[in-house]
Every structure is written in C-alpha cells, then in structure tokens.
Design a protein that fits this description.
The protein is mainly β. Helix content is about 10%, strand content about 35%. The chain has one helix at about 1-20; strands spanning about 25, 30, 40, 45-50, 50-55, 55-65, 70-75, 75-80, 90, 115-120, 125-130, 130-135, 145, 150, 155-165. The protein starts with a helix and ends in a 36-residue tail after the last strand.
Length: about 200
C-alpha cells in the first residue's frame, strides 16, 4: 500500500512539473534566416511552428548589433532599440496598441539579453534580464498565434534560444443544480441557526 501511494505521488509530481516547464523551441522554428546562430537581417523572420493561447510565457535569448530587436505576439509588434528613439519602448497593435513607454526601450548592443514575455487572459508583462519594462491589463483571452522575432534596416539580430511555458487554466466549478419538487418549483429552504422573523402582535 505504501509503495502504491509513493508511486502515485511520483507520477503527480512529474505531471505537475511538466506543466510548469519551459520547452526549447529553437530547433523547431520556421521562416527565413541565416545560419549559424540564427542570424536575422532586414526582411528575415523567425517564427515558432506552434500557435499559442494565453496563459503562456516566452523566454527569448537574443541580441542586436545596433537597433530594432523586434517581436510579434498577442496581436502586437514590440520593439527594443527603436531606430527613431532607442529609449522608447514601442508596442503597436493588439489590446495595448500605442501604449509606448519612454525610458524602457533601450537594451545593450552586441550583448545577449533575456526577454521574458508573460501573457495571461487579462494582462501581459514584458521583462528584460528580470527588469520589468512593460505591463498592461486587457483582454488577451482570444489570442492564438505563433511568436515571431525579426528586425528591419541595417541591423543584425541573432537568436540563441526561444523557450515556451504553457500554463494550465483553472477548471471552473460546475454550478449546483437546483432541487425542484414534483410541480417544478424550488422547495422551501429550511432555516439553520437563523433568528426567526420578528412578529408584530396586534
């Protein structure tokens, strides 16, 4: 009996950890890019084969030699080191369209950074090397698309890793059924420890 309980516990732990695990997708990408090190230039795009719904989390390790490290997901284009103003975080399209943030768009040139993008049904957050750069509350429940990485202009972007972690959505509890009598009416509910109603004597 103890052996059975122990085995069941091991299976439960394995399944739970599998749901919370990042899965590397870099060997399963599609699009146009240059080898080695998945090098992207103007007109190239790197895209995951699968489309993802919220709740989901992406962890991308990439770098740009100059400007325009760009991502696309959640109906939006996200830009770091924008060519017009590198300090401005840009987001175009999707529920957060046009909510650009000054002072949050610059990343170091020629160095790999870790971009963590969390998209839940009611909000999204974007981090660079564990520093929060952007957050927004909105309806992301209908998003279903692949993650894309690309650049424009004369910049060169390299992508080392794209990891994806899916979260299991909590199951909704079924609503309790109403108990009806033979006439289709809800029967009288007995009072528990409630005080009896006040009665006025006339």
């Amino acid at each position: 009996m103890k052996l059975f309980i122990f085995a069941a516990w091991i299976i439960f732990i394995s399944l739970s950890s599998a749901q919370d695990k990042f899965v590397e997708q870099i060997r399963q990408v599609k699009g146009t890019f240059h080898q080695p090190a998945l090098r992207l230039m103007d007109g190239d795009i790197l895209m995951t084969k699968s489309s993802y719904r919220a709740p989901v989390e992406f962890l991308i390790k990439a770098k740009t030699d100059h400007r325009n490290l760009r991502f696309r997901y959640a109906g939006a284009q996200v830009i770091f080191n924008w060519e017009i103003d590198e300090d401005q975080f840009r987001i175009d399209g999707g529920p957060a369209d046009g909510r650009h943030v000054k002072g949050q768009g610059r990343i170091p040139k020629g160095e790999y950074v870790s971009v963590r993008w969390i998209v839940m049904p009611t909000y999204q957050k974007i981090f660079v090397d564990d520093e929060l750069r952007f957050e927004h509350k909105g309806d992301y429940s209908k998003i279903k698309e692949p993650l894309s990485v690309y650049t424009i202009g004369k910049s060169e972007v390299r992508v080392k890793s794209i990891k994806v972690r899916r979260f299991e959505e909590p199951k909704k509890e079924p609503e309790p059924k109403k108990v009806e009598d033979q006439n289709g009416k809800e029967p009288f509910k007995q009072r528990g420890n409630e005080a009896p109603p006040e009665v006025t004597l006339r």
